[in-house]
Amino acid sequence: MIYFIDEERWLVKPFCDELKRRDYAVRNITMANEAYRELADPGPEQAEVDLVIIDVMLATDPDDELSQTLFTRAETDDFLRTGLVLLKLLVEKRPDIFPSRAVIFSGAGNSKLVERIEKVCKGYSIAFLKKGEYVTGFDFADAIEKIISDTSPARKGINNSAENTRLL
């Protein structure tokens, strides 16, 4: 299963559709708190995680308890880095999957935010895909398939250490 964590359904739909055409199961989750619940504490019926694509500037449900405790305005820098906070929490909770099967996908234009994203991705040895670089679903799916083929439990150089949580 490929989890696509991004509230901009209209933007990611062509990417999800192309991945589905290539026989991947894809689930689009639009809020950080919902993604955390589903991925941090998987039930017995959860599909194997092939990859989790995480937007950085990600929505949360303001009425949800997790949003009020884990994804606060202060913690997420006014929601500009909610996806990075989500990734950090998933690394802490599920080191068997994260960060090795995660990718950051963002259209961030602020240079300081882009630097922070690059630093986190480098620290976790994961890809940072820029939204503006993928015009077609085909190009995006090619990039995702390459990442999945390079990402396996036996992948070398994965750094799941708690030390990287300080990168945020």
Give structural notes.
- It contains six helices and five strands; from the N terminus they run βαβαβααβαβα.
- By secondary structure, the chain is an alpha/beta fold.
- It has a single domain, classed as Rossmann fold (3-Layer(aba) Sandwich).
- It has a five-stranded parallel sheet, with helices on both faces.
- Helix 1 links the parallel strand 1 (2-5) and strand 2.
- The two termini are 27 Å apart.
In short:
The protein contains six helices and five strands. With 168 residues, it is an alpha/beta fold.
Stated plainly, the CATH topology is called Rossmann fold
Rg (C-alpha, Å) = 15 Å
Look at the helices and sheets and give the structural class.
alpha/beta
Query: How many β-strand stretches?
Result: 5
Write the layout of secondary structure elements.
Blueprint: E1 2-5, H1 9-21, E2 26-29, H2 32-40, E3 51-55, H3 65-69, H4 82-93, E4 102-106, H5 111-124, E5 128-130, H6 137-150
Parallel strand pairs: 1-2, 1-3, 3-4, 4-5
